[in-house]
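User: Hey, quick favor. My workstation is busy. Could you predict this chain's structure for me?
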Amino acid sequence: MTLPASPDASTALPAAADLWKPVLVRAAVALGFGALTVFWASPSDVGMGWAGGLYLLATGAVLIWSVKKTGLRGGTGSAKVLSAAGSVLAGTGAAVGLISGSLVFAVIATLGLGLAGAAELYLGLTGRGHTVLARDWIASGVIGLGTAAALPFFIELGPHALLGVAGGGAIISGVLWMLAGLTLRHDARGDSTEAVN
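Assistant: No problem, here it is.
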């Protein structure tokens, strides 16, 4: 992740000091879900629905919280796009949690992850050169779209396979967001040290 060469005040994200917390919370949610899917040997349809639903719901809530926490703004409608992506994920998470079944999980999670991935990819592409998270949004968007594209092919294999695919995407994106959050935290510390000196 690199800082923008010449940030435009109208589309710039807030300082790194405001960004690292929601980014690390998002990473923790993704990595927690990913770890669950790795170690859960034989989930039921209901267990898959609850685990996947809570992951999608929590990720959506973190996206919405990050907009409010950071005061995200921008001429491209970044706040609206990210809030919409969070709302879609939260809604699909609630649906997946309440309606169990492999087909339901695959279809609804595919829609939620696909729409959120497309939104993040859009934010990353339009925010290049303006935001510190542009490259991370591009990568996260591609991961979300890839996970969404893969899920329907695993319906016949049942809950373990579906959770494995969703969990694999979660682990990859969780590592990405953890690195981004730690970089932002380091940058924020460097900025505060320079201000003191």
